[in-house]
Design goal:
This protein is 41% helix and 18% strand. The chain is built from 14 helices and 17 strands. Helix 3 runs antiparallel to helix 11, helix 12 packs parallel to helix 14 and helix 13 packs across helix 14. The chain binds pyridoxal-5'-phosphate (PLP).
Length: 397
């Protein structure tokens, strides 16, 4: 660790709660490249954990934020906010007429989606939401309860009630989890944190059929998969089903904190003023950034690009399997890609960082790649070469 990084690390240790274990300090970024405090450059194949769909400092996103922050940084939800309604109008166009409620984060969006589901279920006395083992829905107390992972829940009991768990891609386990209290099923189209595991179309169709049969709501958490990451604006567009409600966050705010619940209008209209609230949700700077992100995705053809470059990423990683039997599988869709390895994923992430590429883990044995949607073929090719060199250092030296 350099002197400069050591200085930051020591301040962090002294004053920040030890919730993460960073290794470098990032200072600036452009597109798919970032630079750290020691002026070392990296390819950022995490894009700020999937928040920067258009890369670092896309000029249009930056200009939108800059213009708004100089004009009216915050308005509160007591007053109309033009940027919020424009973004909601765009999301309605993209989702086929769904209405939006904006939040600050993904966990907060999921919380509010569950609240709306419970509101809908009141008439029939139902409130329980089925979620999936290895899923991830955020870190608030209720979303810890919704996240069926021991490592997320341990130490925080008693957790809020109202969730039941089933196995992902296992329809029978969902049937077994349904009771007279069940109001909804909440699922990620691709489990991101859980290891980049895709829901099969048969499974999703089965869930939709079950929801119809038992009068349940189908809720999707698209916080990681949304905003073009899988090659369509929302991942459900590539499946045979459409959720009754879904959530967005991560890439929605172009790097600023912004989440949203999108709901069918009849569900949205169960709400009355005062029932849901948030101080910062729908902040005008974040919404300006969000609209700019949508504009860039559409103008620059980033959905098609994400599909194409996603193939390059998967094929590039698959090619490494010939040399490294430690790589067991490459999976995912678009630019949400997981490389399953025999040993420690973290060890590979650390070696790649030393070699100039940032990626992250998704569980113990999966290295996760989430590059910006607009990374060029040339830059991704270079990053793949660097990953190959890091694997060579790790496994052959
Ligand atoms: C990141 C994530 C969340 C939590 O979002 P926060 O903004 O960290 O609260 C929830 N669900 C999924 C699928 C995510 O990837």
């Amino acid at each position: 660790m350099s002197k400069k990084t050591e200085d930051i690390a020591s301040l962090y240790d002294q004053y920040v709660m030890p919730t993460y274990a960073p290794a470098i300090a990032l200072v600036h970024g452009t597109g798919s490249k970032v630079v750290d405090i020691d002026n070392i450059q990296y390819y950022d194949l995490t894009s700020g954990i999937a928040t920067l769909a258009c890369g670092h400092c896309h000029p249009e996103v930056t200009a939108a934020i800059e213009a708004q922050v100089k004009t009216l940084p915050h308005a509160s939800n007591l007053y109309y906010n033009t940027n919020m309604v424009i973004l909601a109008q765009s999301l309605a166009r993209l989702s086929g007429g769904y209405k939006s409620f904006f939040t600050n984060s993904g966990a907060e969006a999921n919380e509010n989606m569950v609240k709306i589901a419970r509101l809908w279920g009141r008439a029939t006395g139902r409130y329980e939401v089925i979620t999936f083992n290895k899923g991830f829905h955020g870190r608030t107390l209720a979303m810890c309860a919704a996240t069926a992972q021991e490592k997320i829940q341990a130490g925080f009991d008693p957790l809020p009630t109202g969730f039941a768990y089933a196995d992902f891609n296992d329809l029978e386990s969902v049937k077994a989890a349904i009771s007279e209290k069940t109001v909804a099923i909440m699922v990620e189209p691709i489990q991101g944190e859980g290891g980049v595991i895709e829901a099969t179309n048969e499974f999703l169709q089965g869930l939709a059929d079950l929801c119809k049969e038992k009068n349940l709501l189908l809720l999707m958490d698209e916080i990681q998969t949304g905003m073009g990451r899988t090659g369509t604006m929302f991942a459900w567009e590539q499946t045979p089903v459409k959720p009754d409600m879904f959530t967005l966050a991560k890439a929605l705010g172009g790097g600023l904190p912004l989440g949203a619940v999108l709901a069918r209008p009849d569900l949205a209209d169960l709400l009355k003023p005062g029932m849901l609230g948030t101080t910062f949700g729908g902040n005008p700077c974040a919404c300006a950034a969000g609209q700019a992100v949508i504009n860039v995705i559409e103008k620059e053809g980033l959905l098609a690009h994400a599909k194409k470059i996603g193939d390059q990423l998967r094929e590039g990683l698959e090619a490494l399997m010939d040399t490294y039997p430690q790589i067991l599988e490459v999976r995912g869709r678009g630019l949400l890609v997981g490389m399953v390895v025999e040993g420690s994923a973290k060890e590979i992430v650390d070696e790649c960082r030393l070699g100039g590429v940032l990626c992250c883990t998704a569980g113990e044995h999966v290295v996760r790649f989430l590059p910006p949607l607009n990374i060029s073929e040339k830059n991704l090719g270079e990053a793949l070469e660097m990953i190959g060199e890091s694997l060579d250092t790790l496994f052959n030296d």
